[in-house]
Amino acid sequence: MEMQLSIASKTFSYILDYLGIDSVWDGIRIILDVGIVTYLFYRLFNFLKDSRAMQLIKGIIIIFAVAILASLLRLTTISYALNIVLEILPLLIALIFLPELRRALEGLGNKPLASLFNRASEKNKALSSAIDETVNAAFVMGEERVGALIVFERETNLTEIANTGTAMDAKVSAQLLRLLFIPNTPLHDGAVIIRGDRVLAAASILPLSENRSISKDLGTRHRAGIGISERTDCVSVIVSEETGAVSVAQDGNITLNVSKNTLRSVLRDSLMKKEKVHQQSEKALRESNAPRSSKNSNKKKGEKK
Questions:
Q1: Which of 94, 145, 156, 238 is the most buried (most CB within 10 A)?
Q2: What is the chain's pLDDT, residue by residue, as a tens digit (305 residues)?
Q3: pTM here?
Q4: Quick one: residue 257, left, alpha or beta (phi over 0 = left, psi -120 to 50 = alpha)?
């Protein structure tokens, strides 16, 4: 036992000496240093992941891999050519992404310092706006008897589903959603996929639910909304073309004919971080379910489409 403690003590002392930690402040300094670098890389990745820069990064990685392979195989000509490319690569990157760099620096200068460390609050504000716009659009389309199917992405990535439709990248607004679901237009059929506060795709094809307990009164649009909620953790908002009723599906269950406040509460509870109102959402659902069942066995008539 004493030998094990001695070995552990020597190992720990070696690590401290290697890292140059002689005091508590040195430990705090290293943690702070690593934390800042990690945060910067995280923000950089989030900035680049949905942009064309990711394709460039993949190309750079390939160039580095080929350069290393050529060096190992002693391919002199290829190594010489790739070394020239790598020398001028930083300048090429700066020139190619000059507009993006300028926009990023301008955004950094326009934002308060506190906002850099309060990203969740910013996302919640954007999500809150997107939710309000969606709720308003859904009930206006319900009054107009315009069918709609809107899917909010959560943790499960819906890129594969979005790829079945028409790619988009637009801020969520009531006007845009109503425009997308105008009857007899190319994007009317199918679902709109929303990621955060952005419309990711329109006219996307969703899998239908195979649950036999679902009421036969529910049409294809409702079954698609339930089906995607069975396979992923998304939240689906369905507007019936026949009755104008607005429904919400999650975890394979559907709540029919919800009120405006109920829909808003459910979406905020499911999508917004650090500002969840779970108890309010459950209360709203119970109030909505009081005159009618919210499960798949609901006998209320839906659309026949």
A1: 238
A2: 666 667 777 776 777 676 677 777 777 877 888 889 888 888 777 766 655 566 677 788 888 888 888 888 888 888 888 888 888 888 877 777 777 677 667 666 655 555 545 555 667 888 899 999 999 999 999 999 999 999 999 988 898 899 999 999 999 999 999 999 999 898 988 999 999 899 999 999 999 998 888 888 899 999 999 999 999 999 999 999 999 999 999 999 999 999 999 999 999 999 886 444 444 444 455 555 554 444 444 444 444 44
A3: 0.58
A4: left
CATH 3.40.1700.10-classified regions of the chain: 120-289
Query: What type of residue is 241?
Result: E
Tell me the CATH architecture of domain 120-289. 3-Layer(aba) Sandwich (3.40)
Whether the Cβ atoms of residue 257 and residue 238 lie closer than 8 Å to each other? no
Tokens describing residue 54: 């990711």
Find out whether 271 and 131 touch, Cβ atoms under 8 Å: yes
**Interatomic CA distance for residues 249 and 32, integer angstroms:** 44
Nearest one of 162, 296, 175, 158 to 232, comparing CA atoms: 158
Using DSSP, state whether 237 is helix, strand or coil: strand
